[in-house]
């Protein structure tokens, strides 16, 4: 697992650097820096908006006694998307936007739930308090 994370980090860093250099050569260095700052600010604003909406939904579901499983998954996806948008680079910005846009987040949530159910049913994830 550690080997996979190291490879992912190196490839991700390389892609981000390649993207910044490519965009910088097309539009100029200062414009690239400005674009990175603008996408970071826009990402923070969008993450805040989506996060507040998910928090309100979570409060409503808990007040009605409902289990907020999908809402919690949405909150985690919004957190990851916000972090990705705050990182400098364009590849992470695109992935972060995919995590923050409600329609694409719904598809990601569905895929994540299927993957988690697969892990649970295959025995790769075990519950901590088993009797």
Automatic annotation (TrEMBL):
Q: What is the lineage of its organism?
A: Bacteria, Bacillati, Bacillota, Bacilli, Bacillales
Q: Which InterPro entries match?
A: FxsA
Tell me which PANTHER family the record gives: UPF0716 PROTEIN FXSA
| The protein's name | Membrane protein FxsA
Q: Spell out where the chain crosses the membrane.
A: 29-47, 76-100
Ordered alphabetically, the record's keywords are:
Membrane, Transmembrane, Transmembrane helix
Q: Which residues form a coiled coil?
A: none
Can you quote a single GO CC term? Answer: membrane
């Amino acid at each position: 697992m550690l080997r996979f994370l190291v490879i992912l980090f190196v490839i991700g860093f390389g892609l981000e650097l390649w993207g910044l250099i490519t965009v910088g050569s097309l539009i100029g260095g200062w414009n690239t820096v400005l674009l990175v700052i603008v996408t970071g600010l826009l990402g923070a604003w969008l993450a805040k908006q989506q996060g507040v909406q998910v928090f309100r939904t979570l409060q409503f579901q808990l007040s009605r006694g409902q289990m907020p499983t999908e809402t919690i998954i949405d909150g985690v996806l919004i957190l990851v998307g916000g972090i990705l948008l705050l990182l400098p680079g364009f590849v992470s910005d695109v992935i972060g936007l995919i995590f923050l846009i409600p329609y694409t987040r719904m598809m990601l949530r569905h895929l994540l739930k299927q993957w988690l159910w697969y892990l649970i049913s295959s025995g790769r994830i075990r519950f901590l308090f088993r009797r």
